[in-house]
Amino acid sequence: xxxxxxxxxxxxxxxxxxxxxxxxxxxEFRCFLTSEPPGAMQGKLWDxxxxxxxxxxxxxxxxxPADLRSNLRRAYSKFSQESVDACLKxxxxxxxxxxLCFFHSLISGRIKFGAQGWSKKYPFxxxxxxxxxxxxxxxxxxxEHLGTDVPWPDLRYIFxxxxxxxxxxxxxxxxxxNTYLAVLITPELLAGANLCAGFKSPDAAxxxxxxxxxxxxxxxxxxxxxxxxxHPNAEIxxxxxxxxxxxxxxxxxxxxxxxxxxxxxxxAQPIITSYQGxxxxxxxxxxxxxxxxxxDYTPFVIVSLQESDRMNLLLSMMRNxxxxxxxxxxxxxxxxxxxxxxxxDLQTNKVNALWAEKAYPxxxxxxxxxxxxxxxVDQLVEWTKLLALLKSVWLSGLFNSMxxxxxxxxxxxxxxxxxxxxxxxxxxxxxxxxVSEVVGLPAQGVNVHGLFMEGAGWEDGKxxxxxxxxxxxxxxxxxxxxxxxxxxxxxxxxxxNCMYHCPVFSTSLxxxxxxxxxxxxxxxxxxxxxxxxxxxxxxxxxx
Length: 543
Fold this sequence. Notes:
Low-confidence stretches: 256-262
Helix content: 40-55%
Largest sheet: 4 strands, mixed
Strand content: 5-15%
Oligomer: single chain
Mean pLDDT: 90
Structural class: alpha+beta
Radius of gyration: 28 Å
Strand order of the largest sheet: 3-5-9-4
Number of strands: 12
C-alpha cells in the first residue's frame, strides 16, 4: 500500500485489518506500507499514523545522505557514460553536469543547518536532478545544431526558477538557490573554476564519466561549513539544534515522564503566585486616549495605541488563565484540559499555547519570555506616557514591527507630499549600542535598537563613518548590532551601491517571521553573493 499518509481517515480500518491478517495469514506474508515524511505543519509521523501500525512495522527510510561526498556520489550515479555520449557538446555537458550534481548536493545538505540553510524543508529529489540533466543535454544539442554558445542564463533560469525553484515557497530561500546557480553554472567551469573551497571543477576535455567518479572518491576534501559558503558558527548551531531535537523526540516518544492526567497540577501553585505578583496591570487606555486631541493622532501615536491594546489582551489572557488554574487547584472549578496544559507548561518552563496565540513570535523559554514581556510593557508605558516618538524604539518589543516601519514611511510621505506606495525604508547604523548614548530624536526617521546579526559579524566604523558587514567571530552566533537610524526615501532615491539586501526576521526560525529588507553596508571590495550564501540576516530577538 503506497502513500498511506494520504488516507488518514482509513488508517483505523487498516489497523483492524492488520490485526486480523496477523492472526490468520501465512507465515511468509508481508505487507509493505509507504509514506512520505510529514511536513512541518503536520507534526510527527506518530501523530498521523496509528501507533499500533508503527509498532508492527520495521521502518526503512530512504533519505538523502547527510554528508556532501555521499550526496555528490549518489547524484552523479544517476547518470552514465551513455548520458555523456548522447550530448553533442560533450565537454560542456560533462563540466556542467558535474557542477549541477554538486549544486544538487549542496542544496540537499544545506538543510541540516536549520533556518540559516533553508527556512523550511523542501522536497528536492533525484527526479529534479535527472530532469535538469535531460534539459541540459537538449539545450546543448540545440546550441550545437544552431551553432550558438551555451545559453548559461537560460539554464540557470530553468534550473533555479522552474525545476528546483518549483519546490521553494520562500523568497529568501529562492534567492539562495539562484545564487548557488549563479556562482556554479558559469562559463568558468570549462576553465577549471572552483566549485567550493578546496574543490575544483576538473578539466572536462581530459575526463570521462569514470574519471569523475574516481575524482569524487579520491579528491573530495573533508567536509566543512565553508564548502556551503557558510561560517563555521553555522555548524555550532546545527549541532546544538540536533541535540535539542533528539532529546525532545525522546521526551515525546516516552510521554515526557508524565501520565494521561498530566501529574499533580497543585505543584504549579508557587509558580502561579510568583508570576501573578510580577504581572503588571493593564494599560489604562481610557486615560491614555483622554489625553489625546484630534491632531495628536499621528501614525506613531496610533501604533503605540495599537500595541497597547494588544498588550492588554495578552495580559488579560495570562491573568485570567492563571486565576482559573488557581481555582481549579483549590477545587472551586472543574479542572479542564487547558488548565492541565497550563500547569504542565508552568512546571516545564514552556510558554503556554494560548498565551503564544495572543503574543508575538518568540522561541524563548517561559522564564526569559516573561522577563522579555516585562520590558515590552515598560516601553509601552513610557511611550504612552510621552505620547510622542521615543529617542530610540526597541523594535523587538513590538507585536507588529512592520506597522511601526510603515508609519515611518507614512510620516515621510506626508511631509514631502510623496505617494506612500513608492516609499522605502533606508537604514544607517551608528557606532553606538547603548540607548543612553543617543542624544535626542534623529533629524529624519526613527532610531531603533535590539537588532542582532546571524551568519555574519559587524565592524564598527571610525568616527562618523558607517560600519560594514564582515566575517563572524568564532562562537559569537548573534552579535548585537549598533543602534540604527531608519528613514524613508522615494524608491528612486534608494542607492544599493556597496549594500547587501539583508532580510530582517523576528526569530531565528526566519520564514514567516520576516519583517522588512534592510540595506547593510559592505566593504567596497566585497560582493553580495558571499553574504547571501552565508545566510546573513538580522534578527530582532537573540533566542
